[in-house]
Amino acid sequence: xxxxxxxxxxxxxxxxxxxxxxxxxxxxxxxxxxxxxxxxxxxxxxxxxxxxxxxxxxxxxxxxxxxxxxxxxxxxxxxxxxxxxxxxxxxxxxxxxxxxxxxxxxxxxxxxxxxxxxxxxxxxxxxxxxxxxxxxxxxxxxxxxxxxxxxxxxxxxxxxxxxxxxxxxxxxxxxxxxxxxxxxxxxxxxxxxxxxxxxxxxxxxxxxxxxxxxxxxxxxxxxxxxxxxxxxxxxxxxxxxxxxxxxxxxxxxxxxxxxxxxxxxxxxxxxxxxxxxxxxxxxxxxxxxxxxxxxxxxxxxxxxxxxxxxxxxxxxxxxxxxxxxxxxxxxxxxxxxxxxxxxxxxxxxxxxxxxxxxxxxxxxxxxxxxxxxxxxxxxxxxxxxxxxxxxxxxxxxxxxxxxxxxxxxxxxxxxxxxxxxxxxxxxxxxxxxxxxxxxxxxxxxxxxxxxxxxxxxxxxxxxxxxxxxxxxxxxxxxxxxxxxxxxxxxxxxxxxxxxxxxxxxxxxxxxxxxxxxxxxxxxxxxxxxxxxxxxxxxxxxxxxxxxxxxxxxxxxxxxxxxxxxxxxxxxxxxxxxxxxxxxxxxxx
Amino acid sequence: xxxxxxxxxxxxxxxxxxxxxxxxxxxxxxxxxxxxxxxxxxxxxxxxxxxxxxxxxxxxxxxxxxxxxxxxxxxxxxxxxxxxxxxxxxxxxxxxxxxxxxxxxxxxxxxxxxxxxxxxxxxxxxxxxxxxxxxxxxxxxxxxxxxxxxxxxxxxxxxxxxxxxxxxxxxxxxxxxxxxxxxxxxxxxxxxxxxxxxxxxxxxxxxxxxxxxxxxxxxxxxxxxxxxxxxxxxxxxxxxxxxxxxxxxxxxxxxxxxxxxxxxxxxxxxxxxxxxxxxxxxxxxxxxxxxxxxxxxxxxxxxxxxxxxxxxxxxxxxxxxxxxxxxxxxxxxxxxxxxxxxxxxxxxxxxxxxxxxxxxxxxxxxxxxxxxxxxxxxxxxxxxxxxxxxxxxxxxxxxxxxxxxxxxxxxxxxxxxxxxxxxxxxxxxxxxxxxxxxxxxxxxxxxxxxxxxxxxxxxxxxxxxxxxxxxxxxxxxxxxxxxxxxxxxxxxxxxxxxxxxxxxxxxxxxxxxxxxxxxxxxxxxxxxxxxxxxxxxxxxxxxxxxxxxxxxxxxxxxxxxxxxxxxxxxxxxxxxxxxxxxxxxxxx
Lengths: 588, 588
Known about the structure:
2 copies of one chain form a homodimer. Chain A is an alpha+beta fold. Chain A is 56% helix and 10% strand. In chain A, 61% of the residues are buried.
């Protein structure tokens, strides 16, 4: 009755092979030219085995046991986490998408994204520990001195050492400009770092000996605000093997993700080294922002998939009440709840969005691959802009889907969903944080409108719309895809009109008041595209399993008929000229 | 930084006195003719003191400690719960709205509703224990034999004894027709009850010596399905003081509401007595359905109010980032987040719905009072029909608001919201169950369309629409209320068109596929009315505190401008003739 996980390998293969034609993209990039779809899917199959076989069984016990701070000030992870991590390292998973130069396997990020979705679905808390490796590696590779890179990159790439990002302070959450941690340069070129950080995921633990902290801090006489921030590498173990002057003071007791150590860290003159230039700390961190935020989006997708498949299984088994109309099984006392209209809505809405979300996430990861490896600089630039535009949309959209999807699955389970042993309630609790960290979803909406839509005068969105219109054009030639073509065409027109309306506003406050509407409208635009592209791919090659293709088509069609109309409200608001957002009064 | 609670007494007085003119309703009912607004508000003030002073401090500790089953098979409630309950009984709160004939104070249900909202806001889990008293009293008073009533009612009304409802069995949740618990008549007129029940709130505890279970069961040779159900009174202690043959086998470990004992009960030939006629058990239970479901709605309202006021407080204190535009405080490094557009949306949407929800809930409770006590049978029948129509709407709408509002407040708190010590995450966990129990929100939607809209050919809704149109008419005479009048008028037209469209459908499956849309559309209709009625009341008597009235008006106007447009999608769907809801496939 508890959660099980069957990795969506078939849909992943369909997305990579049929919807996005990833092999064509790989063929165009020398770094990935050797890769074919079968090999890629074989890698994912191995990953699925690890996730479902090793991580899923530790998910509930990790939540129950949680982390603890032992008497020596060392954080202890739940039973079994260390062993699973050692196997993960031995199998080479941390190195999957890292550069061969530092020991990585150099596989595409799009495969890494599929792997992460499975790890997160099976054990979000466990995956928090290695989740930050990729970002630390990217930051260090792009901005670290050669000495730092030689010393740290190989062991981070292999996963022998883990990493932590130390940004937040009590007074500085979304507003990093307010942070106060100090770094003083020493004669030997190192820094002495002093300050306190909170909410540091994996700030301490027992999965690896060393933990490499990337600490955002201020050098003496730094400018106020974000321009005064620098980035320091501060390792738990110094190069001579001794313990650095940094401590985990306490662990947070959280709603969920209890097996992930959320540390309050104190740096008491800890030794560190500058990464990048003084006062350019935020720029160095932004290197990893797109992929880090995409990783959080994948956590949401993982939760949503887990929710979708378990809700479906339960709804097919559980029998309650009769559905009006002809009876499939006249002898049974009641029908499976999957036949009841309310449950069909819940299940189809979740399935359609999960499947569309997987297409979107893979598209974003593939764009990052092309941005890094395509030989044509114009393609690289275009795909970088596309990934930058998609990032806030997917971070906010998929983390919301993860939480709301888990809650919808809980509802399908009814009273059982509220009870711990079924595991759904843990998913609701674990999924909730992803809407907050790595930039709250409200910060994502600001990033979307200010930087991604208005920052380039709408160029990135218009480029995306051109591709979406081409998809609509393709669909319009096939009678069974007409509804998809029409919905996508309509979404593109609405999105363009909304973009023009936003560009025409001269008051930044009015734009911010509509940021969430832009987010919601564009989410449904992405869905409209993913529904159409998936439906066309399913019709194109139904031969392998026509029933599977038809069922997918029906789910995508549900999305067009029942979900996409939700966008209208948001487009209307953005175009409206007379909507006023009042100030909030402190007293009610 | 943790939760605090300031009872919304001012708004309650405004709702009772200005919006609904409850004193006029009381004057019309002989049972309440003595009551005036000042007395009523003085009672609520006492209730607020108990809730905030005695219950709120036990909320977090109760969650942390939870309940336990001791070695003797007795359930132990968390530290402090018993003492608080004794004070509650000594102060006479359980008897507030009960009939004087059985020792009750005979005050209106609308006051009881305000009290319950405060108790639930401060400690939902604690309030689960006395929450079922009123329903048990009503059921017993309406259907019990004179002997049973004499024996049990006085001590239930005083709260000396508590009650539990024993319905659910593993195979019978939403579908009570499947339940199997047996009752065998004995020569002395008693029953021997055998069977197992799950999810029994307060099935055992240590707050009262005796616990009176109302057990849904089958007599020998009962018909299958719900027609074969009977209701038995099965007390923990028999009249001679000995222990009955009933046991709590285990407690559920739940996502939230951990201080409320959710028991798996075993009846092993327990002695009981029939309530009402054989085979009429469900009818006897339905006596209490409207008030019990309204109580659950009030739990949602309580959570939403707690969320709204604490999110506001935090948003006014927490400073992060600058808002574009003129600066209120040029010296401060950052603005209060309450000034940021995303937070204004979150706070205003929650405030507007909480305040509208309180108006709706009070209206429903007042309708129940009029249905019970008005001298004119036509008024009684009309208000009974109104309460029956409002019940599923409020149960589903306010429990969703409670959960989503708590989650919205968590988002306002950011990372702090996810941490236990701030209390918001508990509210999210506690609030979630109310969408499931006492009839899932999906069951409420079925009840709404099948029984409350189509069951009487739409008469109850049309009667409500007549009153709402009169409100729109009143508003249309005042320039500042024109937007409210227009929105309410439009909502009434849309609702009536939707009703006609539902009545015109001949396929019950098509109606069920639109049940949630009917629910959502009518929720916004109720909001449209509550916004308009509140705004008109605020304008009518602003003298007492014009700033307060203006601020309320602005929040109601936010609701009209930003929230009501959400209804359009639902009305469109109901009118659409070509929407198809596919079946769900077991495999994806």
